[in-house]
């Protein structure tokens, strides 16, 4: 049986496309570091978020030098904090977001970054990101969560370190303001 040269060319082209498709899928699955939500954030009773130590008063907490934890509650149709008041963070810092849902599945996506996770009732989603430069980011829910889903948005403001302060921090890490630095001779 003889195969015509054009048939051989098309057969080779089809095999090349199949190999290329498999290579593309393999790279997409393991190459850019995409991962599913893990259980590293832990579980939580979504009906009792008001009784939880961190989620009863969600917000920013300093846990080390230039390291912050942000506790966010997603509920129909707001992020607390984020929607009514922006989440304010310092530039040149590493931030770990702990996101919990109070009611249904929500999305948590920070526009302009690679932060994109789901907030599932009963589970705490944990994701770490570095903010290098002062900038304002949008915060959106990308999972349909009800009739006003399209209005579920918020803001993250990254400000210069000199303009950042946490009021009422219980992290045990002292925040020195300019007045405090002047009072002790500028020593940290």
Automatic annotation (TrEMBL):
Pfam family name, one: COX2
Upper lineage: Archaea, Methanobacteriati, Methanobacteriota, Stenosarchaea group, Halobacteria
GO cellular component: membrane
Residues in Cytochrome oxidase subunit II copper A binding domain copies: 65-170
Domain of life according to the entry: Archaea
InterPro entries: Ba3_CcO_II_C, CcO_II-like_C, Copper_CuA, Cupredoxin, NosZ/Cyto_c_oxidase_sub2
Main location: other
Organism: Salinirubellus salinus
Signal peptide coordinates: none
Gene Ontology molecular function: copper ion binding; cytochrome-c oxidase activity
Keyword terms: Copper, Metal-binding
Chain intervals with Acidic residues compositional bias: 176-188
Transmembrane regions listed in the UniProt entry: none
Designated name of the protein: Cytochrome c oxidase subunit II
Cell compartments where the protein resides: Cell envelope
